[in-house]
Amino acid sequence: ALSPQAAMTKLGQWLCGLALLGSAWAALALTLPGLRLPAPYRQALLPLPIYLLVAFGCYSLATVGYRLATFNDCEEAAVELQEHIRAARADLRQRGLR
Amino acid sequence: MAAGGADKFSVLLPTYNERENLPLVVWLLARTFQESGNNFEIIIIDDGSPDGTQEIAEQLEKIYGSDKILLRPRARKLGLGTAYIHGMKHATGNFIVIMDADLSHHPKFIPEFIRKQKEGNFDIVSGTRYKGNGGVYGWDLKRKLISRGANFITQVLLRPGASDLTGSFRLYRKEVLQKLMEKCVSKGYVFQMEMIVRARQLGYTIGEVPISFVDRVYGESKLGGNEIVSFLKGLLTLFATT
């Protein structure tokens, strides 16, 4: 069964999301007639997109860095594989493999 | 259900120049399945390997029996996707295991896949290198960084609900794999990613089992600039079309 989200592509979801957030930000932070927030609020909201981008950049670096540092090295798996290869070769030779 | 009501597992092994590794993989598979008591068959799809893989496969068929080892070779190198389709035509199991034939995937994980599948009645069980005690052996820092970086971008863009998308060690219900093969069009790493993405679209459930990936061929440098570029192109295509 298709979930409602699956009907839209990921690109479509991103564009919708960005359009929504973008228009909200534009309405509140830019000087538009009709909706006028007090100046301090507008000044705080104006650089918000850049802040969010930088925050996301930092999050990305931290996450990838953490995952890289905790990437398991399977030493035992490699050793075990060598043992299994030896056993396999011996047994197969016995069974007639050339 | 396979005939008789019990589960049967068909392992698809596409091979190209695996004369050394094929008998070892088959030996490990046979031993694993015999120990776990599951009914199995191994389907070897060789793409006209010039190194004698086919001859070794024929010897294995004699040793293990033609009900356990099915040889379904092709004339030349035709790609992984078509190898799966070709192999599945002859599969009599109700579950399909896909894996690499070069010993980077160890058959010992297959009983864990089976256990996981029963536990959650999953349509797909995917081996992951990135969670739990999954991991790799034989990768330097650069390779690991590329792997984690690419996976991160994939997670952000596709939100796939599975931690390891480019992995190719998986258990599928046969009808699920057949359905997915109809829909998938990509090649290489992206092909494995597309399978998971399409599976989610179609509402299939996916379970994960940590696996260890032992890379013994990295020295021959499988990851060049070209591969990275085609990966990104494939990823963006999936992003825009699914």
Shape designation of chain B? globular
Number of domains of chain B: 1
Helical segment count of chain B: 8
Mean pLDDT of chain B: 91
Can you offer a commentary on this structure?
The complex is a heterodimer of chains A (98) and B (242). By secondary structure, chain A is mainly α. Chain A has four helices and no strands. Chain A is elongated, with a radius of gyration of 28 Å. With 242 residues, chain B is of the alpha/beta class. Chain B has one domain: Spore Coat Polysaccharide Biosynthesis Protein SpsA, Chain A (Alpha-Beta Complex). Chain B is built from eight helices and nine strands. Chain B has a seven-stranded mixed β-sheet with strand order 3-2-1-4-7-5-8, sandwiched between helices. Chain B has a two-stranded parallel sheet with strand order 6-9. The longest helix of chain B has 18 residues, at 141-158. The A-B interface holds A 1-3, 6, 9-11, 60, 63-64, 67-68, 71-75, 77-78, 80-81, 84-85, 88-89, 91-92, 95-98 and B 23-24, 27-28, 56, 59-60, 62-63, 103, 106, 130, 133-138, 141, 144-145, 147-149, 151-152, 156-159, 200-203, 212-214, 238-242.
Topology (SSEs and partners):
The complex is a heterodimer of chains A (98) and B (242).
Chain A: H1 10-29, H2 39-45, H3 48-69, H4 75-94
Chain B: E1 8-15, H1 21-36, E2 39-46, H2 53-64, E3 69-71, H3 80-89, E4 95-98, H4 110-120, E5 124-128, E6 135-137, H5 141-158, E7 170-173, H6 174-183, H7 188-201, E8 206-210, E9 212-214, H8 225-241
Parallel strand pairs in B: 1-2, 1-4, 2-3, 5-8, 6-9
Antiparallel strand pairs in B: 4-7, 5-7
Task: Briefly summarize what is shown.
The complex is a heterodimer of chains A (98) and B (242). Chain A is mainly α.
